[in-house]
Specification:
- By secondary structure, the protein is α/β, with parallel strands linked by helices.
- Helix content is 52%, strand content 14%.
- It is built from 14 helices and 8 strands.
- The protein is globular and about 60 Å long.
- The chain starts with a strand and ends with a helix.
């Protein structure tokens, strides 16, 4: 087992990973801008720091679980990077673009901090149980240094190579997730317009060849019509789809289904569902034929 671990960012995934590390016997210090999110972890044995710098002080490994690239800029490149000891391993689970991932690795190299970017697959419950699947890119020696930490979080760890690869995989997977979720919502809207009950449609989907763990997870939100606490917030889904489209533009390629999906989730955001699970897109009516022309 390596030394103390700092976890910065205690949303559903970050909080779950901190809990898994505590369960594995690690000394964990946590920080979140909204302090009340740290209270359950404090009761579970974590030390709660008042700043990100305080959380990272003395830690051999720092795990970031932040919302987006601007949050990484604020937290990591604000005060934190200058206070990390050379050799510290930074496990960044924030979903970012491959371009940003490569730039971040270069910026950190000058300080002696070794960054691992991760594509984390799973949900908050899987995170708390240490059953995620984690795909890692970056410095291979850094991965070797924290393999026990990652093993405490996951049922599988796979190395992908140099910077940018894990971010590309994560965006590809979330692109597929967004398209599938929007498609399920559209099928539900069509069925309801035809006079069928939403629960009937979802039950048929979940007991047929169309079933998948991903669709099943979102379908349960849609069936209950309760979208909080969110497993994956609509705002984050929209953000990740936009990242994928921006990166695709850099590759000079079109993602037509991605464009449709980001529009649907944009409508969900505008309707006030940003903090709801992405499955809440089903509650936003598809555009009318006149408006879609």
């Amino acid at each position: 087992m390596t030394g103390p671990v700092a976890v910065i960012g205690l949303g559903g995934m970050g909080g779950g990973m901190a809990r898994a590390l505590l369960g594995a016997g690690y000394a964990v210090t946590v920080f979140n801008r909204t302090r009340e999110r740290a209270a359950p972890l404090e009761q579970a044995g974590a030390v709660v720091a008042s700043t990100a710098v305080g959380a990272a002080a003395g830690a051999d490994t720092v795990l970031l679980s932040l919302a987006d690239e601007p949050a990484v800029e604020e937290v990591l490149f604000g005060d934190l990077v200058s206070r990390l000891r050379p050799g510290t391993v930074l496990i960044d689970t924030t979903t970012a673009s491959p371009s940003y991932a490569r730039t971040t690795a270069t910026r950190l190299a000058a300080s002696g901090v070794r960054r691992l970017e991760t594509c984390v697959m799973g949900n908050p419950d899987m995170a708390a149980e240490g059953k995620l699947r984690i795909f890692v890119s970056g410095d291979r020696s850094a991965l070797d240094a924290v393999d026990e930490v990652l093993s405490a979080l996951s049922q599988e760890v796979r190395y992908l190579g140099g910077p940018g690869r894990a971010s590309a995989l994560k965006l590809a997977l979330n692109l597929l997730l967004g398209i599938q979720t929007a498609g399920l919502a559209e099928a539900a809207a069509f069925a309801e317009a035809a006079g069928l009950d939403r629960e009937l449609l979802l039950d048929v989907v979940l007991h047929s060849g169309w079933r998948s763990p991903v669709l099943g997870f979102r379908a349960e939100f849609m069936r209950r019509r309760v979208y909080r606490p969110a497993a994956f917030r609509t705002a984050l889904m929209h953000k990740d789809l936009e990242l994928a489209l921006d990166q695709a533009a850099a590759y000079q390629m079109e993602l037509p289904l991605g464009h449709e999906a980001v529009t649907r989730f944009g409508s969900a955001l505008a309707a006030g569902h940003g903090d709801d699970d992405a499955a809440a897109v089903v509650e936003v009516p598809p555009p009318s034929k006149e408006n879609h022309r």
